[in-house]
Design a protein that fits this description.
The structure is a single chain. By secondary structure, the protein is of the alpha+beta class. Helix content is 40%, strand content 19%. It is built from 11 helices and 9 strands. The chain has a 7-stranded mixed β-sheet with strand order 1-4-5-9-8-7-6, sandwiched between helices. A two-stranded antiparallel sheet has the order 2-3. Strand 6 and strand 7 form a beta hairpin. The chain is elongated and about 120 Å long. The structure holds adenosine-5'-[phenylalaninyl-phosphate]. The site of adenosine-5'-[phenylalaninyl-phosphate] (FA5) has 24 residues, from strand 5, strand 8, strand 9 and helix 10.
Length: 334
């Protein structure tokens, strides 16, 4: 059996032939199990010798099989390597490279303009309480001005999603008091609003807050003008209109000039030649007091702008919903 087995094995030169050999000799009805079973039919004195011999044959055949299999596999691998030469020194294929979202790029732009004017970036929470979002900003419950901001409430009474970045003013003041402040507060805000081409229910705002001795409206105007010129070009004019916010007094809204003949100046400028970029004003004494400051000693200004609206104008984006739709055709343009 051993001689025959080895001869057959050497005649099998590829993997399928070897597997067939293995079935023939070692399968359930194979020759080796059959030979081993014979031991039961022998007279007892012969059994021991036969058994030992059978085991020796079995070992020898199975070792020879493993060796042949390994040799054949190695040969097959070598052959395939030679047939499809693989140059491992070639540079790999590059995966597609991503880039920052247009909304992030505009935010970074805004940060760097304000950084040059000495503003630090301060982060504030998106989940707020009614107290900070409204009351400490001089809007007690049932104050009619609350209607300016349609609010997402949570199932916990008094806990809401912030409707603007202004509650961050309170957090910064309470942390910094009695020191002077010069920060911007960027982040996402949420409003329970009808979504349209120019209004989203979540969007970015960048709040600005400056508190110190002798801060005046002239400082606010200078800061906004510098920002607008860095952001939109040196020739830009700004226009200040009187407005109303409960947390600033006086309150203003700021427009920048946007030529009527600009093809991008469709709906958003309403053909007036001006585009609103932010609300702002001198911080209301009540708000300063709520932040821990003495309104008789310090004053300050604040502003809040919507970068998505600004970006729409800069890049002629006609639908604000594009920002969060994750449409690669839109995102790849920037
Ligand atoms: C405010 O939210 C005030 N907190 C701004 C402020 C801050 C005034 C500090 C005074 C002092 P308003 O609701 O107007 O104001 O929003 C500010 C800006 O956010 C708008 O000028 C606009 O650019 C942007 N904005 C408002 N609503 C939306 C919306 N639904 N989708 C996209 N952008 C919006």
């Amino acid at each position: 059996l051993l001689q025959r087995g080895l001869a057959d094995l050497h005649a099998s030169t590829d993997e399928p032939a070897l597997k067939a050999w293995n079935t023939r000799y070692f399968g359930p009805t194979g020759e080796v199990p059959a030979a081993t079973k014979k031991v039961a039919t022998l007279p007892p004195p012969e059994r021991k010798g036969y058994g030992q011999e059978a085991n020796r044959v079995k070992e020898a055949l199975s070792q020879a099989y493993e060796q042949s299999l390994a040799t054949v596999k190695e040969a097959a691998l070598l052959a395939s390597l030679n047939a499809n030469p693989l140059d491992v020194t070639l540079p790999g294929r590059r995966g597609p490279l991503g880039r920052p979202h247009i909304a992030s790029r505009v935010l970074r732009n805004i940060y760097s303009v304000f950084a040059d004017m000495g503003f630090q970036v301060y982060r504030s929470r998106e989940v707020e309480d009614d107290l900070t979002n409204f009351e400490l900003l001089n809007m007690p419950p049932h104050h009619p001005a609350r209607d300016m901001w349609d609010t997402f409430h949570t199932t916990t009474p008094g806990v809401i999603l912030r409707t603007h970045t202004s509650p961050g003013q309170i957090h910064v003041m309470r942390e910094m008091v009695p020191n002077p402040i010069r920060v911007i507060l960027p982040g996402m805000v949420y409003r329970y609003e009808q979504v349209t081409t120019r209004s989203e229910m979540q969007f970015h705002q960048v709040e600005g807050l400056v508190v110190g001795e002798g801060i005046t409206m002239a400082d606010l105007k200078g800061t906004i003008t510098s920002f607008a010129r860095r952001m939109f070009g040196q020739e830009r004019q700004i226009r200040i209109r009187s407005s109303y916010f409960p947390f600033t007094e006086p309150s203003i809204e700021v427009d920048i000039d946007w030529p009527k003949e600009d093809p991008n100046a469709d709906r958003l400028t309403k053909g007036t030649g001006w585009l609103e970029i932010m609300g702002a004003g001198m911080i209301h004494p009540t708000v300063l007091r709520n932040g821990g400051y003495d309104p008789d000693r310090v004053s300050g200004f604040a502003f809040g702008m919507g970068p998505q609206r600004i970006t729409m104008l800069q890049y002629a984006i006609d639908d604000i919903r594009q920002f969060w739709s994750n449409d690669l055709r839109f995102l790849r343009q920037f």
